[in-house]
Amino acid sequence: MTRYRTKVAALLAGQGAYRKAGGYLDAFLITLIMINVVAIVLESVPELTAQYHHHFLLLEVTSVGIFAIEYLLRLWSCVEQTGDKELNTSNSRKRIKYLFSPLALIDLMAILPSLLMMFFAFDLRFLRVIRLFRIFKLTRYSRAMQLLLAAFKQEGSSLLAAFFIMSVVLIMASCGIYLLEHDVQPDKFGSIPESMWWAMATLTTVGYGDVVPITPIGRLFGGVITLLSMGMVAIPTGLLASSFAEQLRKRRDAFNEAVLHSLHDGALDEQERQHLETLRIELGLSPSEANQAIKLMTSQRAYAMYCRHCGHKL
Which residue ranges traverse the bilayer (predicted)? Predict the structure, then answer.
């Protein structure tokens, strides 16, 4: 049983001898997800729903079945994907930990709405929107999305601090415009909660124009808030951009270190090349980046074998 579980884990992760088969499986699942997203969007058209109802239903049942099998297989084989720190942990605890991981929750959301529909009555529009969450399954197969999630995780506390400051500014802007415009426009700035719509549209620099100040002091206050919002919105963007670049740099450094370790004897054998290719896929690096890193590390390794003063081999 353990042998089959190891094979399933390697296939789902696209590792070792199952790297090519795992790539084909990922391509199939990505295609199925995109077909589902297109079908869910088209299903909102009443004419298409009436004409192709059975086709949409067949696609939904088939997709849910495939996604459910994938979810169960990942849950069953996840014990083979744990790190060294969890070697002494029981399989039950490993599976419970996997159940509450972000990727597992996304996989569950892909099948749960349709399964619940069999037992409970739902508004079809609500169910359709919930089913669109399947697009987040692409996170598992996109290394760029995984980098972005890692950036969110790394900068979580900084982002919370930035959003807290933005919330304070939002409340202050709502209170200020309420005091300045309430007497002139009671229908649009009748209360502080109603004023928050204008404050939110202004702070995000959207400026819908449906609610605007008309008094001179109100317009001056709105201009100040607009100028302030330009810097406020840039804070989370800058944090994510710097963290994204940092995550990419760490992955490149990890690959360079692995290449340098494999070059301890001055050359790469086939087994070492296979290991580096597997690591490249796990880190989300492109083949050109990996080849460039290997060439660079090889040249540096070869250069280090010669004395920089006399030029003789060490």
Answer: 21-42, 54-77, 98-122, 159-180, 196-214, 220-242
Q: Which pairs with CB-CB distance under 8 Å and at least 24 residues apart come from 208-215?
A: 213/177, 213/180, 213/181, 213/185, 214/181, 214/184, 214/185, 215/180, 215/181, 215/184
Coil, strand, or helix at residue 226? helix
Residues 6+ apart with CB under 8 A from 255: 276, 279, 280, 283, 285, 289, 290, 293
* pLDDT greater at residue 42 or residue 129: 42
Instruction: Note down the domain range covering 292.
Output: 143-313
Kindly report, residue by residue over 59-89, the tens digit of the pLDDT. 988 999 999 999 999 999 888 765 544 555 6
152 and 135 inside one domain: no
What is the count of structural domains for the chain?
A: 2
- Which of 102, 118, 141 is at the close of a domain? 141
* Backbone dihedral angles phi then psi of residue 313, each to the nearest 5 degrees: -70, 135
- Same-domain status, 225 and 297: yes
Confidence check: pLDDT of 11 > 60: yes
For residue 286, report the phi and psi dihedrals to the nearest 5 degrees: -80, 155
% residues pLDDT > 90 (the chain): 15
Task: Judge if 223 and 252 occupy the same domain.
Answer: yes
d(CA 193, CA 170): 11
